[in-house]
Amino acid sequence: MFEAIMDEEERGQVGIGTLIVFIAMVLVAAIAAGVLINTAGFLQTQAEATGEESTSQVSDRLQIVSTSGTVNGDQNISNVTFIVATSPGSGPIDLSQTTVEFVGEGGQDRFDVQSSNITNIIGTSGDVLTDNSDRKEVTFAISDLDYNGNALGEDERVTVTFTTSSGASTVKEIRVPTTITSEDSSVRL
After folding, report:
1. What is the Cα–Cα distance from 79 to 101, expressed in whole angstroms?
2. What is the CATH T-level fold of the domain 62-188, as seen in this structure?
3. Mean pLDDT for the chain?
4. Which residues make beta-bridge pairs with 157?
């Protein structure tokens, strides 16, 4: 089966050729391993960044605790007040970097929350919600909006979307009661 090589010169040349091929294969494997390790490290870094951004967009959102409206003399809603908090697992949210969009029968308007719209109820002062126990009151005058009309009428529906700086959105549909009496100074929406 094996043929014996009688010439000693030929025997040494076969061994050197095999050694050169072996060294070349080891070098190619080392280079390929280096490329794979660098690529894996880059992909891991990119995946971590994407994961953090995705988590932010899902968890760093507002939770609307309650919604109410102030009734004016015409039995319409002139101001809408939201009590907001951070959702569970959320990081700090700066309300002054939050946008609000009103969409309803009277049109739509999109604007940034201003510090003048924010009242501190519970927790830290300023515009930032840092903890789930913090509560802020955010009030909007309907007359200040680019909305058709100065107030919300009976049985009117408006969809309000709060979008934080991380891109997380909270949607709340407010619905004005079908009947508002002259004794009502505010109503729950």
Report:
1. 15
2. Immunoglobulin-like (2.60.40)
3. 84
4. 175
